[in-house]
PepSY domain-containing protein (Hyphococcus aureus), 139 residues
Amino acid sequence: MSETQSENTQPQTTPAPDAGLGGLAHSIGTRNLWLIILTMPAVFLVAVAAIIAIFGKPKKDEAELAAPVAVEDTAVAETPPSDRAALALAPGEAAGAIALDGDRLAVRISGPDGEWVYVYDLRDGATIARLPIVMTPVE
């Protein structure tokens, strides 16, 4: 055999990739890939800490708005003046829906003689109107 034939008879081999890291490890180097894998979480934590340090502290006005404020319910604590008429219901009557608009209070009252809407003026303590609720049958 000639020398050219002996060169062609040798088996061709391909370079094996680095253990478990594939072509990326081969292209950037195994040491550099491990360095990237291990430092990425630290870089992420530093970036999050920087964002919290810059934007995390509330301004003084926002902190005052977020602070809880003690509120006293004065509507329950006050007793009605004696010169104003109280809302009195006759025996068998029951108050239903109530709506407040400024100084006027509308109360739906159900009783033995039907249903009525009473409108009261809270400032004067007087009944402004008494409106009957009439149910019409649907045909």
User: Anything to note?
Assistant: The first strand starts at residue 94 and ends at 101. Helices lie at 3-8, 22-28, 30-55, 60-66, 74-77.
